[in-house]
Specification:
By secondary structure, the chain is α/β, with parallel strands linked by helices. It has one domain. The protein is about 45% helix and about 15% strand. It has twelve helices and seven strands. Strands 1-2-7-6-5-4-3 form a seven-stranded mixed sheet. Helix 1 runs antiparallel to helix 2, helix 2 crosses helix 12 and helix 6 packs parallel to helix 11. It is globular.
């Protein structure tokens, strides 16, 4: 990652606390199997800046980017590797999913030290012109001689309930063998674009070529590979809410939706789920700034 981009991320996204948090009395979510992470921000324009500047490295593997002509690479990524129609009206542009996905990608890399398995842009089809299917991040982290696959989800909405509820409603699908299998097969299909070469991962992918009928999710379990499922929730904090009060509303809504939906997770593989919260001000303004810079082809940092 460019040093300028890394510095911009560290300036814009500020670590606040982990949950449970003794000082505020906040516990982690009822679904989380490891600590939730809470970030903060004091300048929404700084968030817009890191989203805009993070698009190219979100959409393309770093080793395939010509950093001597970064603006051209950025334009190529926007037109062919993410869902963005320059001729659409602003109401349509505001609904695109890449804003949150880019932030999740940056947070995982900068703060959690993960490595990208394959940039998300390789899973987007310009012909379909819809959001790329599957998990919103494909990352990896080595752990005590083993690996964790970090396959994440990102939501960036004006209202926290609108960000949380869709994640909860599809959780039984997202953490199922079939869904994980389909995402791993998608990675196999993009094997020429993998940005990490890990022996365990390669062995897992090779096993499918040898026997396409195998359950890849079960193979992960057999090989001691865990799935880490970070769920990124970015939303606009109500002006009247203190920071931790705003986070508590998210935690309470997760519990309420868990009870309402009656979530059952069918995964046979070992997984860890946690939430990453980023309350913001001026969500619409953040997205509008990114749109303006894309359309005017603003120079990158």
């Amino acid at each position: 990652m460019r040093e300028a981009l890394k510095n911009a991320v560290q300036s814009a996204i500020l670590f606040e606390c982990q949950l449970p948090h003794q000082e505020s009395g906040l516990g982690k979510s009822c679904l989380s199997s490891q600590n939730d992470i809470c970030f903060n921000n004091t300048d929404p324009q700084e968030i817009a800046k890191v989203i805009y500047n993070g698009i190219v490295e979100f959409a393309l593997n770093e080793y395939e980017i010509n950093y001597d002509d970064l603006e051209r690479e950025q334009r190529r990524a926007i037109l062919s590797r993410i869902r963005y129609n320059p001729t659409a009206d602003n109401s349509a542009k505001l609904k695109y999913g890449f804003y949150g996905e880019v932030l999740l990608d940056l947070i995982l890399r900068v703060f959690l030290q993960t490595s990208v398995v394959a940039a998300r842009g390789y899973f987007y089809s310009p012909i379909e012109n819809s959001e790329a299917k599957g998990f919103d991040a494909f990352h990896l982290l080595e752990r005590d001689g083993n690996i964790d696959l970090w396959f994440g989800e990102a939501k960036f909405y004006l209202r926290y309930k609108d960000a949380i509820t869709p994640v909860m409603e599809k959780l039984g699908t997202s953490l199922s063998d079939g869904y994980l299998n389909r995402n791993l097969i998608a990675i196999i299909n993009e094997r020429d674009h993998l940005s990490v070469h890990n022996t365990q991962l390669n062995s897992l992918l090779d096993s499918w070529f040898e026997n396409p009928s195998i359950n890849l999710a079960q193979e992960m379990q057999n090989r001691g590979i865990r799935l880490i499922y970070p769920i990124f929730i970015a939303y606009e904090k109500a002006n009247r809410d203190a920071y931790h009060q705003s986070i508590k509303k998210c935690i309470d809504h997760i519990a309420a939706e868990y009870a309402r939906i009656g979530i059952s997770i069918p995964a046979t593989f070992d997984y860890r789920l946690f939430f990453i919260f980023l309350p913001l001000s001026e969500v619409k303004q953040i997205k509008e700034s990114v749109i303006q810079w894309i359309d005017s082809q603003e120079p990158l940092i």
